[in-house]
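Renewal narrative, Specific Aim 1. Our central claim is that a sequence can be written position by position from structural information alone. The example that follows is taken directly from our test logs and has not been curated for this report. It begins with the structure tokens describing the chain, in the order in which they were read.
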């Protein structure tokens, strides 16, 4: 959860009331946030320095407030004060509006060049007119951007925010991508001009900015924003230009958000402008900007329209445990900055979600807001209508029993990644790479995590290959889930609990894994042979390239394959960097859940 530092006196001034610490803590609890710590500038400085500060330190009391990670509208003092004032009924829900530029001027325009598709393809913009900054408001404005960068913007990888003094610039603006040597400007808080390549080297020693350099450092071109005179506004996502830096005298603020995710960029822009439009000459108004994308399409930002959502009243009451009528539930939503009205059927609530509440995605989010506005302490306690006994799921109970027995047999448990590479899961173990069985990661960031594993064997082999110095013999096992595609499931895949063991020594250790198989079946209560027992099919395992031909078998029970074991093929061992022979066994445990334990 993000923690927002706000001055107590400034917050109470915005709330129009002074609270004791206990009263404010109770208010935070009622709203679903938490007063984490009460400190001061002097105490914070003391911690940073590791010693006591001088007596003349700033004694302003600071409240550290924990905010839910999805409440981007509460990452600054203005957002917290607005939410609590509406919750307490002191102020109405703000109505945000788009207004045209003053004196009949044309809208500002941002033109996106096609080459930006190579590095950071999206940009959205807005203008705040007649803003009145003082030091506290300015600090809050900067702090909100930092909080958004760390949270929603994923450390600037998804979105980077740039704010500029519009009076120092001349539109229209252009968003381009150029080779680093062709971009030259004076960056923020610098007096020397740098080209982009030299600037990247310069910031490698900067404790804050060096973390963002890898985002574009290896790109052939760097994103850059120019005004009509060729003045550089920013080199996103690294630094803004010094020429257009905002200060306490800035009145017209030009805001641009460059991004790899257009939706996140729009949410970020909406958050910034809605939080600080209260300081505009005409409160809660924002001037739109036209953005012409690389294909020539023109869109207007910010998009401050409310979203419509219909929620069944029965759903809300059944989840909370109340018996509210539709009118009451709709009224409660107004305390959470939502607009609610009784639906035409009288059994639902039509909700209008403002641009500040990007966290409202599903009826359950509306239900949660009704519960907060109603008050969790006001929900009547009652005995559940059904009696249940808490206990482990059968598959987990079975897993725990087996884990203990296998460990007592001398095997060491390992825990490997459930995600792996296509190469490890298929090619390295000589298994068909048809990808008709494995669930794939659609936007894998690394080749090490491309698919969800379909077998535990590659993980055991990889573990052994990474521990070549371990003394022989090595006996390891894992009990965990694999995933296979299944069109009969609502999510298109199913989890399969499996157990796998590996034995490695100077010989193949086939008899060791065979003994482990016998012990597993003994624990499961499955005898060898007969109608109720399991059997071995040596011929079927010849199709599995992971095993040495003629030295493996499929494990059969009730006419179907429930596992396999055998000596690992030398080619497989070589690929995993294993020099000693080893054998493995893998059994599907889901088949034995009905067995008495």
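The sequence written for that structure reads:
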């Amino acid at each position: 959860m993000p923690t927002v530092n706000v001055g107590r006196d400034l917050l109470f001034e915005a709330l129009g009331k002074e609270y004791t610490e206990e009263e404010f803590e109770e208010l935070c609890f009622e709203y679903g946030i938490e007063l984490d710590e009460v400190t001061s500038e002097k105490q914070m400085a003391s911690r940073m320095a590791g010693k006591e500060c001088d007596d003349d330190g700033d004694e302003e009391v600071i409240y550290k407030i924990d905010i839910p990670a999805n409440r981007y509208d509460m990452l600054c003092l203005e957002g917290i004060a607005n939410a609590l004032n509406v919750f307490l009924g002191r102020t109405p829900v703000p109505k945000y509006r788009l207004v045209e530029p003053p004196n009949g001027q044309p809208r500002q325009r941002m033109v996106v060049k096609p080459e930006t598709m190579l590095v950071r393809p999206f940009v959205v913009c807005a203008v705040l007119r007649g803003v009145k900054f003082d030091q506290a408001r300015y600090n809050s404005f900067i702090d909100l951007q930092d909080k958004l960068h760390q949270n929603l913007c994923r450390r600037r990888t998804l979105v980077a925010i740039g704010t500029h003094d519009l009076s120092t610039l001349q539109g229209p603006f252009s968003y381009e991508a150029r080779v680093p040597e062709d971009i030259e400007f004076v960056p923020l808080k610098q007096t020397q001009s740098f080209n982009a390549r030299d600037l990247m080297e310069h910031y490698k020693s900067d404790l804050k900015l060096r973390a963002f350099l890898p985002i574009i450092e290896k790109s052939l071109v760097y994103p850059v924003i120019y005004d009509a005179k060729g003045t550089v506004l920013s080199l996103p996502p690294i630094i803004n230009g010094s020429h257009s830096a905002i200060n306490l005298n800035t009145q017209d603020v030009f805001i641009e958000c460059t991004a790899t995710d257009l939706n996140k960029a729009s949410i970020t822009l909406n958050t910034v402008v809605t939080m600080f439009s209260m300081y505009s000459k005409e409160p809660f108004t924002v001037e739109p900007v036209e953005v012409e994308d690389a294909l020539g399409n023109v869109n207007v930002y910010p998009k401050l329209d409310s979203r419509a959502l219909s929620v069944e009243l029965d759903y809300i009451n059944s989840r909370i445990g109340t018996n509210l009528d539709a009118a009451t539930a709709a009224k409660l939503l107004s305390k959470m900055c939502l607009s609610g009205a009784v639906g035409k059927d009288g059994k639902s609530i039509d909700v209008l979600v403002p641009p500040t509440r990007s966290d409202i995605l599903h009826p359950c989010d509306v239900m949660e807001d009704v519960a907060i506005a109603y008050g969790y302490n006001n929900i009547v306690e009652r005995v559940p209508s059904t009696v249940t006994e808490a206990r482990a799921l059968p598959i987990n109970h079975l897993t725990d029993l087996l884990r203990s027995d296998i460990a007592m047999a001398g095997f060491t448990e390992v825990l490997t990644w459930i995600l792996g590479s296509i190469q490890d899961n298929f090619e390295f173990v000589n298994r068909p790479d048809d990808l008709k069985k494995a669930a794939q990661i659609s936007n894998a960031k690394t080749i090490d995590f491309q698919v969800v594993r379909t077998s535990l064997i590659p993980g055991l082999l990889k573990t052994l290959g990474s521990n070549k110095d371990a003394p022989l013999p090595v006996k390891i096992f894992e009990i965990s889930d694999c995933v296979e595609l299944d069109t009969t499931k609502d999510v298109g895949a199913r989890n399969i609990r499996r157990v796998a063991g590996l034995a490695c020594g100077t010989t193949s250790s086939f008899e060791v894994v065979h003994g482990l198989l016998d012990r597993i079946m003994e624990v499961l209560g499955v005898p060898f042979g007969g109608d109720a027992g399991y059997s071995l099919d040596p011929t079927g395992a010849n199709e599995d390239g992971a095993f040495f031909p003629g030295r493996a078998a499929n494990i059969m029970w009730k006419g179907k394959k429930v596992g396999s074991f055998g000596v690992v093929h030398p080619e497989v061992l070589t690929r995993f960097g294993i020099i000693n022979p080893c054998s493995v066994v893998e059994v599907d445990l889901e088949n034995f859940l009905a067995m008495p334990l």
